[in-house]
Every structure is written in structure tokens, then in C-alpha cells.
Design brief:
heterodimer; A: 328 residues; alpha/beta; TIM Barrel; three-stranded mixed sheet; 38% helix; B: 336 residues; six-stranded parallel sheet; 11 helices; 17% strand
């Protein structure tokens, strides 16, 4: 049983330390520095958060998505066919993103996350997991003025992002996470989601994680297991109903279990983690289980995010011992 | 329910915050590093408040706000002044905008009136009415971490009692218009909407002041027409940034409250033209009668530059005047 994270990580340290990233972006926006200088600071901060995850003992890390303004525009700005509109609330959070607008046919014109992945791999002694926002979520959070239907839009995005997955694979990614939080909110569109997922993963041999959060997959289980993903990521905090959902049928995939609350500062005790793992191992064997926070940790201040990582690692370690003890 | 007293037809107001002048930003930075005293900071906050009151009078707004020059963030400000909160640290809102997110660490409640002194100060500077400005209980709860209360319900209702006491203190201090902002009200439209309604009942219970609630950035159609049950006289909503698409929603069920129509975008640098504002008001008039309409920006303007803010407020006031004249057929700025 190993530990991983979902994706983003706080970009700035706690007060009163000045956020290097934040002040650099401000200078960049005022035209005082150029993009190369901004990228240099983003590289530094990325290396810093990679180091933090490695030192805390996380087994499979991400680059913390320091360079992402948000999970939608990071892709929409780099695919063709989109313009970017005003602020929208990101699900039920107090986080806002700029709304992508599909004005023309969307297409992949070059790698988006590949250099981020290779940079992270060079700076990490632990395996790095690249993350791509899935076609369904990108479609659901964009305004579509080009395609006649959501289905056509999502499938076009699936086709475009398929090339991104292949580019990541060609760069050596062995595991790729696809984030699809929107499916928890729009279950009635499961057929569109399934079709877009098939197009997205077509011909991609890397291990694929379907990551859901901010809700449960009730109503989509067990059919979600038939989709071409090797690992399913579930949120057991906001999606606490998942505990009951997965009891309905054998869990035939690997599980990335989001059991630490990424959206509250209360840090879970080792005991809570051990109890959660016992419940999980009742339906998934430990070798097919990754333990993670319920979502990206950027909802928290940096110091709390670090404490969550510590709790994740310590809790999983004790849970592993607990399981060994139970078997002997 | 209260009347709008003697405000003119299509009266203009603002949502709450205005940008802080450079000298105040600098002073706040110094105060954080304890390089200047609390008194020195307060004096500059008062100076900035005086300037904004003057600017609003000069432009011709009918119902003024104090501009919240002494507040950092609409939730953290109340959390700082109340029992039961700590500040966890900075959390990103969007782009490189961060806010200090509070944590509920114990029973919440008021130590003392929070906004009353600033209200009295602002009102002493002008003969025009100034709005009392509060953040609603659901939004304070939703935009804080919670390490204390077992359920969101307990936290929200406890906060509602505290915000209600504050509203009554504002009224006692002379506020005839009180705004209770609930921009988070549609966060969990199925699970929590009844709770948010219940909380507002507690806040405005027994008030005779005219009450407003500002709601923005979220799925308003999802909570319409249920939101018409919110215990306030006026709903202040962002119409401009969605190009008045919400009017389609309001056609589905009669808008039974007063509305504060957001006619200028609070998050774009572009200053709208007078005609653009007038056109927005005319569109609204096709769906909601003039007697129910007040005119306002989409949201607080604190993220705009000062000249953008002044430009937007001026376009808003002049645009309202154009339509008011069309309706009354006179050059008189007020109703008889």
C-alpha cells in the first residue's frame, strides 16, 4: 500500500514569508520582468514543492501544478479553438477559474504538460505522475458555442487530449492521471463521459488513473469499472457515500482512495487513517491500493498541506504494519 | 418588509468595497510589519473613507457604502473581530489573488459590535444614506475551515445569531439600509439551501431597516425562484458579466422582491459606456417593473483600479439617469 497526492499544491509559503511566486507574477503582470524570468521562478518553486513531497515520504508525487493558473485554462489556452472568458466558481469551492469558450473546432497543436513532466522527473527521486484534465470535465466547465452537442464537444476534446497522453507516454510517463471531477455532478451524462474516455485513452498503454473528487460515483458503479482505466480515484470525504457505493459490487480495478480531507485544516489522526484503511482493505487488497488526500492540497495553506502529507505518510505506515499484524 | 423610503426611481448604489488608495495599501503593509501604529493606520482608513464618500457624492450615487477601506477580506474581517476564529493562512482564490481563510476553532460569537463605529463614522460624513454592510452567516461558515462544530448546520445557525445581533446594533445606530451578503448561498443548492434561508430569517428577524442581500458567482438559475424566499427586501445580483442572461431565468417566475441590478462588470478593466449601462437597465425593465429596480455594479469593486472604479460608477449613475428620464419624461432626477 503506497501513498500519493491528487495534484496541486500551495504555491506560496505561510505568512509572513513573502510568496516568491506571487510577487513574481505581480511583477510579470506589471511588465517589470519577462516570461523567461517568471518561468525561472516557477521552476524554482516547482523544485521546492517536489522536494517537500519527496522528503515527507510520498511514494508517487506530482509537480504540484505550480505553473497552472487553473486546471481548465492550462489546457484550453494551449489547445486551438478556445478563447478565455470571465471568472466562474470552481464546483462548490471558493476558488475561481476563467471560463474557456470553444469558439472553433478544438485541436491539439503541441505538447502541453510534457516539459512539466520531464522537469519534475529530473528533480524527483520518486516516481512522478503527470495529470491531465479529462475531456468531460473540460467540456463541462467550458462554454461551447461551436459544437452542436456536449457529446461532440467532449469527444473532440477526447481526441485532442489523446495526443497529449501519447506525448506524455512518448516522454516516458508510465502512469498518467486523468482528472474528471465533473462526472460526480453530471451523472446523467455518463454515456458521453464513457465515450469521451474511450477516445481519450485509445492506444495509450501507460497505466491510467481516472480521478474523481468533490462527490461520489453513486449511480455509476459498477459500470465505471468497464471504462479503459487501470485505477479509479475516489473521494471518500466529500463523496462519503462512496463507502456504500463500492460495497455494491466487487472492485475489480486498483483504487486511489482519497481519505484525508484536502479541504479542511483539521489534520486526521493516525487512528482515523488506520480505521479507513481497514475499511478499504475489506474490498481491495493492499497491493492494489493507493492512499491519498481527497483532492489537490491547494485548498490549504502550505503549512497545513505539509501536515496533511505527514499524516498521510505516518497513517499509511502504521496501517501497513496493522495489516501485517493482522495476517500473522 | 420595508419600503425604499425616499430613494428615487432606479436609485443607484454599490455592492460594498472600493479599491484602497496607494497610501493605504502601503500603510497596511507597514502595519503588518508593525512599523506603524494602529492609530496611524486608522487615521488613513478614515481619510480613504472620507475620500470615497466624497467621490460617491460627486458622482451622484443615491445610497452610499463606506467602501470597506478598513477591511481586508469580507469573511476574515468578521472572523478577526469575533470569538471562535483563528486565521489559517493564505489560500488562493484565483490567478495570484489570495485571501486569509479563517478557521473555526471554538464556539463562535460576538465580543462587541463589529461594524457599528465605521457605519457611524461614514454616515457622519454625508446627508445621503449609507448602507450597513454585513457578511451573511452561510458565507462566513462556507468560506471558513471548521475544526470545531460537528455539523455545518450548528455553525451556520450560531453565526446567524451573531450576525443578527450586529444587524440590530446597526439599526440602533441609525442604519436604515442593511446589506447582508451571501455570495456563497448557492454552494450546495440541494443540501443546504433551506439552511441558508433559515439562517437569514434569524439575521433579519425584527429589523425595520430595508434589507439587501448580494449574491454572485454561482448558479443563480439553480436557486431561482426559491431564492425569492430569502428574508430580505432586495436581492442584489450580477447581471452584466453574464450579459443579462439571468433575465431569462426571471421570466420563468415573477421576480417578487426588489432587485439590485449589476450593470457594470466588477472584474474587467474596461469601463462601460453610459449607453451600455442604459441598455442593460432597459433590458431589465422588460422583465421587472422600475419600482422594484435599483442599479448597482456586479460586485464589490476592490480589485479594480481607482480610475476604473470611478469610471464605472459614473457610467452607472449617468446610465440610470438616462433611463430614469426616459421613464419620467422629465429632467427631474427624483420622483415627485
Amino acid at each position: 500500500m503506497i501513498t500519493t497526492v491528487i495534484g496541486n499544491y500551495p504555491k506560496i509559503p505561510d505568512l509572513p514569508a513573502p510568496g516568491k511566486w506571487r510577487s513574481t507574477v505581480e511583477r510579470f503582470q506589471k511588465g517589470q520582468i519577462d516570461e523567461t524570468q517568471l518561468q525561472h521562478v516557477e521552476d524554482e518553486v516547482t523544485a521546492e514543492v517536489i522536494n517537500e513531497q519527496v522528503q515527507m515520504g510520498i511514494d508517487v508525487i506530482t509537480d504540484g501544478q505550480i505553473r497552472w493558473e487553473d486546471a481548465q485554462t492550462h489546457f484550453a489556452r494551449r489547445l486551438s479553438g478556445f478563447s478565455i472568458n470571465g471568472l466562474q466558481r470552481y464546483f462548490d469551492t471558493n476558488i475561481y477559474f476563467r471560463e474557456p469558450v470553444a469558439e472553433h473546432a478544438v485541436a491539439w497543436t503541441g505538447p502541453i504538460t510534457v516539459s512539466e513532466f520531464t522537469f519534475a522527473r529530473e528533480h524527483s527521486s520518486k516516481p512522478v505522475k503527470p495529470v491531465v484534465t479529462g475531456p468531460f470535465t473540460l467540456a463541462a466547465l467550458s462554454r461551447n458555442v461551436h459544437y452542436p452537442t456536449l457529446k461532440e464537444f467532449a469527444i473532440a476534446l477526447g481526441r485532442a487530449l489523446n495526443r497529449e497522453l501519447k506525448a506524455l507516454e512518448a516522454a516516458g510517463a508510465e502512469v498518467i492521471q486523468i482528472d474528471e471531477p465533473a462526472i460526480c455532478q453530471r451523472k446523467q451524462d455518463f454515456d458521453i463521459f464513457a465515450e469521451a474516455s474511450r477516445v481519450l485513452t485509445d492506444g495509450v498503454k501507460a497505466k491510467k488513473i481516472l480521478c474523481t473528487y468533490f462527490g461520489d460515483i453513486g449511480g455509476l458503479y459498477p459500470q465505471i469499472l468497464d471504462l479503459p482505466f487501470d485505477v479509479i480515484g475516489l473521494d471518500f470525504v466529500a463523496g462519503y457515500r462512496n463507502w456504500d457505493v463500492v460495497a455494491a459490487a466487487p472492485f475489480t480495478r486498483e483504487l486511489q482512495a482519497g481519505v484525508l480531507d484536502a479541504r479542511n485544516t483539521r489534520v486526521e489522526s493516525v487512528d482515523e487513517l488506520v480505521r479507513a484503511v481497514r475499511r478499504l482493505t475489506a474490498f481491495v487488497s493492499p497491493g492494489r491500493l493507493m492512499i491519498s488526500p481527497s483532492a489537490g492540497l491547494e485548498f490549504l495553506p502550505r503549512s497545513v498541506a505539509r501536515r496533511k502529507l505527514a499524516a498521510l505518510v505516518e497513517g499509511t505506515k502504521v496501517a501497513n504494519q496493522d495489516l501485517k499484524g493482522a495476517r500473522t | 418588509m420595508s419600503s425604499r423610503m425616499n430613494l428615487p426611481l432606479l436609485a443607484t448604489s454599490a455592492v460594498g468595497s472600493y479599491p484602497k488608495p496607494a497610501y493605504l495599501l502601503e500603510a497596511r503593509r507597514k502595519a503588518l510589519r508593525q512599523q506603524i501604529s494602529k492609530q496611524e493606520l486608522t487615521a488613513l482608513e478614515q481619510r480613504a473613507t472620507r475620500e470615497w464618500i466624497q467621490i460617491q457624492e460627486d458622482i451622484g450615487l443615491d445610497l452610499l457604502v463606506d467602501g470597506e477601506q478598513y477591511r481586508g477580506d469580507m469573511v476574515a474581517y468578521f472572523a478577526d473581530e469575533m470569538e471562535g476564529f483563528a486565521i489559517a493562512g493564505l489560500v488562493r482564490s484565483y490567478g495570484n489573488r489570495y485571501y486569509p481563510k479563517p478557521v473555526v476553532v471554538g464556539p463562535v460569537g460576538r465580543r462587541h459590535p463589529v461594524t457599528v463605529e465605521w457605519f457611524k463614522f461614514a454616515q457622519s460624513l454625508t446627508k445621503r444614506p449609507v448602507k450597513g454592510m454585513l457578511t451573511g452567516p452561510y458565507t462566513i461558515a462556507e468560506w471558513s475551515f471548521n475544526e470545531h462544530y460537528p455539523t455545518r448546520r450548528e455553525l451556520v445557525l450560531e453565526l446567524a445569531r451573531a450576525v443578527g445581533e450586529e444587524a440590530r446594533d446597526l439599526e440602533k445606530a441609525g442604519a436604515r439600509y442593511i446589506q447582508i451578503d451571501e455570495p456563497a448561498i448557492h454552494t450546495r443548492p440541494d443540501e443546504d439551501f433551506e439552511l441558508a434561508l433559515e439562517a437569514m430569517e434569524i439575521v433579519t428577524d425584527g429589523l425595520s431597516a430595508y434589507t439587501v442581500s448580494h449574491i454572485c458567482y454561482g448558479d443563480v438559475p439553480r436557486i431561482y425562484p426559491r431564492v425569492l424566499k430569502l428574508a430580505v427586501d432586495q436581492l442584489d445580483l450580477a447581471l452584466k458579466n453574464e450579459h443579462f442572461a439571468l433575465l431569462e431565468t426571471f421570466k420563468q417566475a415573477r421576480f417578487t422582491k426588489d432587485i439590485g441590478v449589476g450593470v457594470v462588470d466588477a472584474h474587467s478593466h474596461r469601463v462601460e459606456s453610459v449607453e451600455e449601462v442604459a441598455e442593460g437597465i432597459r433590458k431589465t425593465l422588460q422583465v421587472i417593473p422600475a419600482e422594484q429596480i435599483m442599479v448597482s455594479p456586479d460586485c464589490g469593486l476592490k480589485t479594480r483600479a481607482i480610475d476604473e472604479t470611478v469610471g464605472k460608477l459614473r457610467a452607472m449613475v449617468d446610465g440610470a439617469k438616462v433611463v430614469r428620464n426616459e421613464l419620467t419624461g422629465t429632467r427631474e432626477p427624483t420622483r415627485a
